[in-house]
Amino acid sequence: MSKRALISVSDKTGLVDLARGLVELGWELLSTGGTARTLTTAGLPVTEVATVTGFPEILDGRVKTLHPKIHGGILARPTPEHLAQLQEQGIQPIDLVVVNLYPFRETIARPGVTPAEAIENIDIGGPAMVRAAAKNHERVGIVVDPASYDEVLAELREKGSLSPETRRRLAAAAFAHTAAYDAAIAAYFQRLMGSEEPFPASFVLSGEKVQDLRYGENPHQGAAFYRLPAPPPGTLAGARQLQGKELSYNNLMDLDAAWNLACDFKEPVVAIIKHTNPCGVARASTPAAAYRLAYAADPVSAFGGIVACNRPVDGEMAGAMAEVFLEAVIAPSFTPEAMAILKSKPHLRLLAAGERAGYRTREYQVRPVSGGFLVQEPDYHVLEPESLKVVTTRKPEAKEMADLLFAWQVVKHVKSNAIVVARDGVTLGIGAGQMNRVGAARIALEQAGVRAKGAVLASDAFFPFGDTVELAGRAGITALIQPGGSVRDEESIRAADAAGIAMVFTGIRHFRH
């Protein structure tokens, strides 16, 4: 009896070559719907599944392979008892299952897709066949990835059958395939549920490997980059690398931090990042002007940095960046003139992320802990000026208020304890990740130097003592923004009044660990 292969694929890549190779080896082909039509058009002999089952496809194709003559042929073990039952029921064994699933992830990635369209692209029969074949990999080969076709054909030609090791490896890939598929569906329904159930009892997460990385944060750590199903435009995982060396783990961490900071602003902004913290951030009327200001804010730290711009990079900005050593640049796009200039820096990594589609591009932040992981909503809070509370005798002037809002938006992206000194829409000093707030302030004010005079200062959390305010006053800071809420708020307010500093409370903090 000839061996039988059941082929039913949504992705037709490599289909005809695989099927032709099987036919040349004497295999019988079973198929359904569009796959059968493709094979017939290619002149290959194929038996329709409906012919085997004696039952037509029904319910607009929702039911076609869910039948004992299909699943019995897949699930039967090579035991006398099972083979006898197959003979009694007139069922022939199926030795190879080649299935990939309805394009659910591709469907939900399309703009404007409706729930009805998404639901019709949830495969039922396909996963059932994949899981059945993978369960019975003792006898059956299961292939879900067109990239495996050549390897499978080569082994069949050489040995006449697939080895137990190959069948086991293919089964593992098949279970991972269906797990990722179901995870994408679960995540889609979680999005549909929205605020009804923001943190479900079971949190499902899956990713498709984009690339193996040379190493992780350090050379002795392994690492890989995965993307979530159907990442929307405007995300790092959906970005295209246009040129440059291979991205490293640290590059990707810094790119994500820089891109999220830049995209937090509506006006043109450039952020330069080192070790996930900003070293220079500026807003201006053009990307080139913003870049020059951000770079000048801390040129020592900017050397070898990661640059993010929330506007397309033009020739003028590219020319300015070409003058120094940078690791990577991410932006919505790069003009042809910019690409021509930056080709002179072939190792510089350029990523085009597309326009960020709406403000909220990520529903969750996930971080591992020993034996589990933490899930939270991203910090999407945007401060509205009317929500501020002025607590000092002196009120901020309009220019000071604009700088306070800018500094507050930047400090949200700095590791706690965090202090940002800014003026005229440019950061002058940033203190990040310190164990006490006054230490972070000293770093930021020292970096700002004489430029601190007339500048403003933002703190990501309240001042537990008046020492930070006093330090700011001695440096010439004229206005402060902080959450408020400390039991010692009155001490800070008195210190600000004594120094003639305006201080406003936001009522919200921005811890970043």
From TrEMBL:
Biological pathway: Purine metabolism; IMP biosynthesis via de novo pathway; IMP from 5-formamido-1-(5-phospho-D-ribosyl)imidazole-4-carboxamide: step 1/1; Purine metabolism; IMP biosynthesis via de novo pathway; 5-formamido-1-(5-phospho-D-ribosyl)imidazole-4-carboxamide from 5-amino-1-(5-phospho-D-ribosyl)imidazole-4-carboxamide (10-formyl THF route): step 1/1
Catalytic activity: (6R)-10-formyltetrahydrofolate + 5-amino-1-(5-phospho-beta-D-ribosyl)imidazole-4-carboxamide = 5-formamido-1-(5-phospho-D-ribosyl)imidazole-4-carboxamide + (6S)-5,6,7,8-tetrahydrofolate; IMP + H2O = 5-formamido-1-(5-phospho-D-ribosyl)imidazole-4-carboxamide
Gene Ontology biological process: 'de novo' IMP biosynthetic process
Family matches, as CDD domains: IMPCH
Domain MGS-like: 1-144
Pfam families according to UniProt: AICARFT_IMPCHas (PF01808), MGS (PF02142)
Highest taxon in the source lineage: Bacteria
InterPro entries: AICAR_Tfase_dup_dom_sf, Cytidine_deaminase-like, MGS-like_dom, MGS-like_dom_sf, PurH-like
GO MF, one annotated term: IMP cyclohydrolase activity
Entry EC number(s): 2.1.2.3, 3.5.4.10
Any one of the GO CC terms: cytosol
HAMAP family: PurH
The record's note on its domains: The IMP cyclohydrolase activity resides in the N-terminal region.
Name of the protein described by the UniProt record: Bifunctional purine biosynthesis protein PurH
Organism: Neomoorella thermoacetica
Classification lineage: Bacteria, Bacillati, Bacillota, Clostridia, Neomoorellales
